[in-house]
Amino acid sequence: MFNIGVVITTSEGREENLRYCLSALSAQKILPLEVVVVDDGSQRGEETLKGLKFPFPLHYLWRPNDCCLSLSRNLGAHQLQTETLVVIDSDILLNPEALEAYALFLEMKPHWILYGYFGYEPTLFSPSNFYPEREIQWCDKRYVDYRQDTIIPAPNMLKYPHEWAWGGNFALSRKLYQRLKGFDERIKGWGGEDLDFASRAIGQGCEVHFLLDAWAEHQPHPTNQRFHTLSERGHVYTSHYTLSPYPVRILSTPYGLKQLLDKVHHYYLPQTRVQTPN
Q1: What is the rounded CA–CA span in Å between residue 114 and residue 102?
Q2: What is the pTM (predicted TM-score) of this model?
Q3: Which region, left, alpha or beta, applies to residue 167 given φ > 0 means left and ψ of -120 to 50 means alpha?
Q4: What pLDDT, on a 0 to 100 scale, did the predictor assign at position 222?
């Protein structure tokens, strides 16, 4: 049995996204042993889930809004006792084999931190492959070319992986999370807490890699102006371009890569709607 738990971070305006996120977790080929939702101040998040049943124990931690994703992730990781932690935002719809992929790769390489693919190009929308009534973002802008047999990453992704280690969908061992002392809770709002975490991890001898098998759709959500306001920031991560001390890998199994490419070329692209920014 895989010993895997999931932390879901959520906040105001993402209540419906959270419900679908948990539904996608319920459809995993390998179910998590437990799930903790950490809610940064939504008004209806827990209420939205009332009456719903899930095939795993679900813990719900709510607090008044403070725009601190670091605190949310640390609280969730502290709550879980599983060997492997998967950390996702409530906007993420994992493909049914994502948890299994994370568990298999981390079983072989427990000193790695793996970052899954997820749609994060804000101008490209498509119906969800899993819930066609939902419109999602499918294109991960860390990747620059979707060929018939492979996906090409941005060149700098292989040089400076910490700068591309986006925290919406990633996994690592709980022991490693504890050794790194979690996320820096001085960072609030849009301050780069995820990049800081990856940078510190690499500095302490860990390796950051990217896993296509753990691909996911991303549900759009309202912008939290307070989260994005510069004046709300405390300590902010400063980007740096220190070359990776190890070869960075874009990992996949032949099956996982084929599944993602099939969805891109035969489902998402034919139905893509382009929305230009205002």
Answers
A1: 7
A2: 0.96
A3: alpha
A4: 74
pLDDT at residue 231 in the model: 45
Place of tokens 């895989």: 2
Say if strands 124-127 and 135-136 run parallel, antiparallel, or are unpaired: antiparallel
Residue 200, domain CATH:
3.90.550.10
Are 33 and 10 a contacting pair, CB within 8 Å? no
Phi/psi region, residue 254 (left: phi>0; alpha: psi -120 to 50; beta: rest), is alpha
Tokens standing for residue 137: 């973002």
How many domains does the chain divide into?
1
Rounded Cα–Cα distance for residues 121 and 139 (Å): 5
* Burial class of 50 by CB neighbour count within 10 A (0 to 12, 13 to 18, 19+): exposed
Residues of the chain with pLDDT under 70: 1, 223-234, 278
**CA-to-CA dists, residue 208 to 114, 198, 205, 247, angstroms:** 6, 7, 10, 10
Domain that holds residue 250: 4-274
Q: Tell me if 92 sits within 8 A of 131, measured CB to CB.
A: no
Q: Give me the pLDDT at residue 277, please.
A: 74
| Phi/psi at 25 (5° precision) | -65, -35
Which residues lie below 8 Å from residue 51, measured CB to CB, with a gap of 6+? none
Residue type (1 letter), 149? D
Q: Is the CB of residue 65 less than 8 Å from the CB of residue 12?
A: yes
Nearest to 71 by CA among 201, 165, 173, 191: 191
Residue 110: per-residue pLDDT: 95
Question: 192 phi and psi, to 5 degrees?
Answer: 80, 30
Q: What percent of the chain has pLDDT over 70?
A: 95
- CA–CA dist 61, 39 (Å, integer): 6
> What is the pLDDT at residue 226?
62
> Are residues 76 and 7 in contact, defined by beta-carbon separation less than 8 angstroms?
yes
